Amino acid sequence: QPRVPCSQPQRQRGNEAVVEYFSNMGLLSIIRKVKRKEREMRLLMVGLDNAGKTTVVRRVNGEDITGLAPTVGFHIKTMAYNVGGVSYRLNVWDVGGQRSLRGYWRNYFEKTDALVWVVDSGDVMRMDECAAELSALLGEERLLGATLLVLANKQDLSGALSVDEVSKRLGLTGESVGKTRHWQVAACSAATGEGLLDAFHWVVSDVASRLYALA
Predict the structure, then answer these.
(1) What's the pLDDT tens digit per position in 93-124?
(2) 206 with 182: CB under 8 angstroms?
(3) Is there a binding annotation on residue 71?
């Protein structure tokens, strides 16, 4: 079958498409390089109301923690965090945990590198509710690749459950969390700061090993 020659306008449009394709590829490459250079990561911090999420964020960032009100909606905190002499830019999404707000959590799943689930270790009566909400999150497709850090918060309170007890009450096992997911349960107190830096060091290091190992 004879080949039909392209007209000049058709050839020009084809050339423009090729140029646009490679221009876009170049732009994506630049974006990746910028992200690598800035070493950004996105942390989604959720949990039941009164778990201490905002206190955790402010304590880690060295801010005043007195007089905090419950979060309605969400806050975004951008902070520099140093691990092993390397500075990372953390974008922490602190989302309110009231029952009326939980249906909106899914609006914040996109591009999450780490899921930080904060637990009030002293609120034994709500552990079943806490377990159910966390289990639902772990089944979300957009969070399947995210590192999981569970903060067993309020360890300074008398009667607070230990890390092992929190893990058991939340039903956390390799199978329930996901065999390929990196995860850890860490004891901490946002009120005193105890355990928080070690926990954040772990989660930032883990995300960095996935995102920036070859950077």
Answers:
(1) 999 888 888 888 999 999 999 999 999 999 99
(2) yes
(3) yes
Longest dimension (CA), the chain: 87
* Mean pLDDT computed over 122-147: 95
Tokens of 175: 């199978």
How many other C-beta atoms lie within 10 A of the C-beta of residue 48? 21
3-class secondary-structure state, position 74: strand
Q: Which residues are catalytic?
A: 98
Provide the residue count of the chain: 215
Closest residue by Cα to residue 184 from 146, 134, 150: 150
> 113 near 211, Cβ under 8 Å?
yes
Residue 53, annotated ligand binder?
Answer: yes
Coil vs helix vs strand at 11? helix
| Cut 0.85: pTM above it | no
> 39-211 domain in CATH 3.40.50.300?
yes
Judge whether 10 is annotated as a binding position: no
84 is in an annotated binding site: no
Lowest mean pLDDT among 41-55, 57-71, 159-173, 179-193: 57-71
3-state secondary structure of 175: helix
